[in-house]
Amino acid sequence: MIHVDYQKLRGLVQDVFERAGCNRDEAERIGRYLVESNLAGHDSHGVIRVPRYVNWLKEGKVVANQTPEVAMDTDVITVVDGKSGFGQSVGPFAVQMGIDKAKKNGASIVAIRNSGHLGRIGDWAEMAAAAGQISIHFVNTTGLGMLVAPFGGAERRMSTNPIAIGVPREGTWPLILDFATSIVAEGKCLVALSGGKPLPKGALIDGDGTLTEDPLVIYGKFDSSQPLDNRSGSGAIRAMGEHKGSGLSIMCEFLGGALTRGGAAQKDENKLLNGMLSIFMSIEAFDAGHFFGDEVKRYVDFVKTAKPAAGVDEVLLPGEPEMISRAKRKAEGVPLTENAWESILETARAVGVPESDLKGLEV
User: Fold this and answer.
1) What CATH number has the domain bearing residue 21?
2) Strand pairing of 236-238 and 204-205?
3) Which end of the chain is less enclosed by CB atoms within 10 A, N or C?
4) Are residues 339 and 286 part of one domain?
5) Measuring CA to CA, which residue among 219, 17, 231, 29 is closest to residue 118?
6) In this structure, are residues 212 and 199 in contact, taking their beta carbons and an 8 Å threshold?
7) How far is CA 116 from CA 86, 122, 136, in A?
8) In this structure, are residues 91 and 115 in contact, taking their beta carbons and an 8 Å threshold?
9) Same-domain check for residues 70 and 162
10) How many angstroms separate the CA atoms of 120 and 139, rounded?
């Protein structure tokens, strides 16, 4: 395991995407959001995705420098078509519209369709929380992202379909719940394939219905000369919580896919597209008596005073592990496996980043 300075890593990723064809603003956003995922401890959505994103860009599976299209707009509802653009551009565009409408009208709903990979969905909940708003996000994926088996099944029928909820708190960090409805996100399979943290026991299911944690059942026989998207195993990721996670994932297909008109999961070997349905709520519109903030504080204190279970140091709140991880990784550097780091460096070289710019990045 190596450690890379997060600011230098962000600059490197920006440089890679500028050279790959993104304008400076878009490349900066991609670098910022990917590295932020690593800082938050979500390596599955971090810089390990750089080679894949660049490959998608070269193959036309994602389009650089797209301006999202507002397909429908009312006082409360907005529908945004991402036009296969990078999710790091589509996401903040749509979320800002939702925030602005909720500030004006008390609440809003924003539907995104046809977006490139939206990254860590907690980013969008954090963005709304920074504006003082509660937000709820339901995400689906079609095409290349269809990797998850429904409860009781052994074939892929849905994606990892994350759900995120953000609750702001005055004067301190927000509460951010952000989880895949599968046992693991696909990116964690990618991390495991690259020699990183192994998958939980039984997180995957092979085509014959056997439980396993071997990421090769997702990607097929490992061949570094072939892009991951061109290698497909016979297995699937399992839904979390048995029927409960599977049911939540199916509902994400309806809300993030069918209602946005982006479509529920279906096989498409050409590209990965995200849909997201987001609800934004201005606390002031619901809480004229200023009850909410004090009640959140009271309940948080109540939860935190629970006696820890055996082997647990303290009870953590949603968003607290990410806060702890940010502080640690900013101080010590972003940890990456040697395989993942070398893959990023190879991608940087391939788009023309000078060898001299690849030196001195490690802590």
Assistant:
1) 1.10.1530.10
2) antiparallel
3) N
4) no
5) 29
6) no
7) 5, 16, 20
8) yes
9) yes
10) 11
Q: Are 102 and 136 in contact (CB under 8 A)?
A: no
Task: Tokens for 75, please give them.
Answer: 């006082």
Asked if residue 16 lies in contact with residue 37, where contact means CB atoms within 8 angstroms, the answer is no
The mean pLDDT of the chain is 94
Q: Could you tell me if 244 and 291 lie in one domain?
A: yes
Chain centroid, CA 192 distance in Å: 17
Q: Is residue 328 part of a domain?
A: no
Are 160 and 249 members of one domain?
yes
Q: How far is CA 82 from CA 21, 327, 349, in A?
A: 18, 33, 29
Residues 156 and 260 grouped into a single domain: yes
Is residue 60 left, alpha or beta, with left meaning phi > 0 and alpha meaning psi from -120 to 50? left
pLDDT at 307 over 80: yes
Q: Which two structure tokens, joined as six digits, stand for 71?
A: 């397909």
Token pair of 93, please?
A: 């565009």
H or E, element range at 179: strand 175-179
pLDDT > 70 fraction of the chain, expressed in percent and rounded:
96
The yes-or-no verdict on residue 223 having pLDDT over 60 is: no
**DSSP structure class, residue 79:** E
| Shared domain check, 76 and 34 | no
For 105, the enclosing helix (H) or strand (E) is helix 87-105
Q: What is the extent of the structural domain holding 125?
A: 66-182+239-297
> Which whole number is the average pLDDT over 107-124?
98
Calpha distance 349→357 (Å, rounded): 10
Residues 246 and 216 in one domain: no
Instruction: Give the C-alpha distances (Å, rounded to integers) separating 328 from 3, 135, 221, 325, 339.
Output: 12, 27, 36, 5, 22
Structure tokens at 23: 């304008």
Q: Which pLDDT score, from 0 to 100, does residue 222 have?
A: 55
**What's the structural domain count of the chain?**
3
145 and 274 belong to one structural domain: yes
Establish if 320 belongs to a structural domain. Answer: no
